[in-house]
Amino acid sequence: MTASWIVIGLGMIVSLLGYYLIPHNWGYGILGFGLAHIILGVLDMFRQPAKSRGGSN
Predict the structure, then answer these.
(1) What is the pLDDT along the chain (57 residues), one digit of tens a residue?
(2) d(C-alpha 28, C-alpha 55), whole Å
(3) Is the dihedral of CA 7, 33, 42, 20 positive or negative?
């Protein structure tokens, strides 16, 4: 759970950086990269841990 919050926080920082660089071509890519990190961090929070899945080893 802690790793998810770290990924979300870094995504917010990168998204803000990209937002301030938007008039340049790099800004859109950096903003999208940050938003992808935010989305992946949120999705990781809802994922079940491997121990509770009950799969065979």
Answers:
(1) 788 999 999 999 999 999 999 888 889 999 999 999 999 999 999 887 767 666 665
(2) 41
(3) positive
Nearest-angstrom CA–CA distance, 37 and 55: 28
Handedness of CA 18, 21, 24, 26 (dihedral sign): negative
In 3D space, the residue among 27, 30, 47, 36 whose CA is nearest the CA of residue 7 turns out to be 36
Model confidence, pTM: 0.78
Kindly state the tokens that stand for 41. Answer: 């961090």
C-alpha triplet 44, 48, 54: angle, nearest 5°? 150
